[in-house]
Automatic annotation (TrEMBL):
This is Electron transport complex, rnfabcdge type, C subunit. The keyword Iron applies. GO terms for molecular function: 4 iron, 4 sulfur cluster binding; electron transfer activity; metal ion binding. The lineage of its organism: Bacteria, Bacillati, Bacillota, Bacilli, Lactobacillales. Keywords: 4Fe-4S, Electron transport, Iron, Iron-sulfur, Metal-binding, Repeat, Transport.
Length: 290
């Protein structure tokens, strides 16, 4: 269930200043307006399905994917579309963006409802429809990752959080360990993956202890291994994490699936429980997006 420190070759030691590691997560008030670029992920840019001055509700699809490596965008607030015009992205490129003015009502879209899942294909479609993408730099759509044709035997959960300041993964592990673990089990079951490894740097002792206790309590020691990793940048990079946890080397230009691995962030596993799973009855999974 628990593996000792392992590491990859190279990397660098950085001074960590995790000043928010002991600060509980807080829910912030919705902003007065949101600007949503139609380039939210790697792959094809989305196409707006709303127009200026149109009223939208929470969870409404406001842009659709235009290719396989693409996924819809949903309104995070209710209100009025003020404009759709080009905006500059952090990478220096530009694309159209939808500006929504908040009406303060937080009105949910009337079509939101649980989705019944009875097969892997339906799970993948639900993942696509949900608009969930990875929170790494590329923003890789979840459904594309899950739909790999390669044989996967190991689900790796990235809780390394090797950057000097960020602490969100640490707080998730401390505050929501059961949701993280149940999200992992969901994917192990539906994707028929035999095991999962959670990789966390050793400078997060509270997160490690919390997850370890819950793995024991939920009797998951035969399916989920927790590995403590030396604090080293870039420990959280996909290929580095795969080598540190499995000693497998992803070929140059290759994907994790080439060595039988699927890598997801620890936040993604919690998301599966918070936004999707309502219950599981008779092998029928019921998912909710919002």
């Amino acid at each position: 269930m628990f593996a000792s420190l392992r590491k990859f070759s190279g990397g660098t030691l950085v001074t960590h200043k995790k000043r928010t590691a002991q600060v509980p997560t807080k829910t912030i008030e919705p902003p007065a307006s949101v600007l949503l670029p139609l380039q939210q992920h790697i792959g094809a840019v989305c196409k707006a399905t709303v127009k200026a001055k149109e009223l939208v509700t929470v969870g409404q699809v406001i842009a659709t994917g235009t290719g396989y490596v693409s996924t819809p965008i949903h309104a995070p607030i209710s209100g009025k579309v003020k404009s759709i015009k080009p905006t500059l992205l952090a990478n220096g490129q530009s694309c159209e963006a939808i500006l929504i003015e908040n009406d303060g009502l937080n009105t949910p879209h009337p079509a939101l409802a649980p989705v019944r899942i009875t097969s892997k294909d339906e799970l993948l479609q639900a993942a696509c429809d949900s608009g969930v993408v990875g929170i790494g730099g590329a923003g890789f759509p979840l459904h594309v990752k899950l739909a790999t044709k390669d044989a996967i035997d190991t689900l790796i959960i990235n809780g390394a959080e090797c950057e000097p300041f960020i602490t969100s993964d640490n707080r998730e592990a401390v505050e929501e360990p059961q949701r993280i673990l149940r999200g992992i089990v969901t994917l192990l079951d539906w994707l028929e993956i035999s095991r999962s490894i959670i990789g966390i740097e050793s400078n997060k002792p509270e997160a490690i202890a919390t997850l370890a206790a819950q793995i024991q309590a939920l009797e998951l020691t035969d399916r989920i291994t927790l590995q403590s990793l030396p604090p080293r940048y870039p420990q959280g990079a996909e290929k580095m994490l795969i080598f540190a946890t499995t000693k497998r080397r992803v070929p140059t230009g290759g994907l994790p699936s080439a060595v039988g691995c699927l890598v997801l962030n620890i936040d993604m596993e919690k998301l599966l429980r918070v936004f999707w799973i309502v219950t599981s009855v008779n092998n029928i999974l019921i998912l909710r997006y919002f």
